[in-house]
């Protein structure tokens, strides 16, 4: 049974407390929080103050995805804001290992995210040091995009790399996740399903989350 991490990027920001309350009452495992800086990706979302408020509204895992340049400058700040899992992009850092160690030294789980064009094989020398790999199944920056089918091949390749080494590394997928493709994604090796519009634009978000939980 996968973990489900609804992405608050698709939520109603005017009703953020209500959205958190709904997620608290649902079968959601994590809250996925996308931080964008307008430089690494062509969009700006929200930052530390919003995450601080969300942290006070939930006891569930806060899964923070940094789509920003120079993430190393803000690791401690996101820890203080309440991040439990902190994911940085492979493409955004020249000193990946150092930042992963920094994240883990502060007591957070460390994740690395890959854009759709970045080969999974590039993770070979860092895989043993992380807790999670986030496969972007759309180009990062905007919600509501269509799932890139090539992502299945990349997920299976990553699953094989992890299993061959006997590692306890989760695979998370983000972008275009639906109730329809969730099952095949879990079968391909995904542990954590991130879903934005699928959850928040549905008529019954709690039922949709429950359906995602039973995928695979």
TrEMBL record:
Keyword line: Carbohydrate metabolism, Cobalt, Isomerase, Manganese, Metal-binding, Zinc
One GO cellular component term noted in the UniProt record for this chain: cytoplasm
Pfam families per record: Ribul_P_3_epim (PF00834)
Keyword Chaperone: no
Biological processes, Gene Ontology terms: pentose catabolic process; pentose-phosphate shunt
Molecular function GO terms recorded: D-ribulose-phosphate 3-epimerase activity; metal ion binding
Cofactor: Co(2+); a divalent metal cation; Fe(2+); Mn(2+)
Protein's UniProt name: Ribulose-phosphate 3-epimerase
Gene this chain is encoded by: rpe
